[in-house]
Amino acid sequence: MKIQSFKELIVWQRAMELVREVYKASAKLPNTEMYGLTNQMRRCAVSIPSNIAEGRKRGTQRDFTQFLRIADGSAAELETQILLACDLYQVKEFERSKELLSEVQKMLGAIIRTFSLQAASYKLPARKKQHA
């Protein structure tokens, strides 16, 4: 069965769930963080499924892989911000976010590796040198 829409991708679905969890958990941070850590966490979280969707719609495996890498980068940023929030504010509400983030990161890594291996196997043979 061929994937017709990015909405069918399990990694996108989990990333959307992650966004909802980050929004809920970040609401527990102090109001002084509304325009700092809270805003940054939410933007990173939203970036993950957004880049998965955009990459899928681009139509080529190469573009999709690049956008998956961007999503993976946003996931690493979010991981850092969650760790920071937990260290600074001892917020326990991020546990589910951490679980989902780990799952999404593993999925992204697996897809990126698979596409990279496929791309490597499709390389054309080197051109023969032409003599004058």
Summarize the amount of helix as a percent range. over 70%
CATH architecture: Up-down Bundle
CATH top level label:
Mainly Alpha
Structurally, the number of domains stands at: 1
Q: What is the residue-mean pLDDT, rounded to a whole number? A: 91
Q: How far from one another are the termini?
A: 51 Å
Largest sheet: none
β-sheet strand percentage: under 5%
Number of DSSP helical runs: 4
Shape category: elongated
Task: List low-confidence stretches.
Answer: none
What is the number of strand segments? Answer: 0
In N-to-C order, the SSE pattern is HHHH
Which class do the helix and strand fractions yield?
Answer: mainly alpha
At the fold tier of CATH, the topology name is de novo design (two linked rop proteins)
Specify the CATH homologous superfamily.
23S rRNA-intervening sequence
Global Rg: 19 Å
Overview of the molecule:
The protein has helices at 10-26, 37-58, 61-89, 95-121. It has a single domain (7-120), classed as de novo design (two linked rop proteins), CATH 1.20.1440.60. The relative contact order is 0.15. With 132 residues, the protein is mostly helical. The N and C termini lie far apart (51 Å). It is elongated, with a radius of gyration of 19 Å. The mean pLDDT is 91.
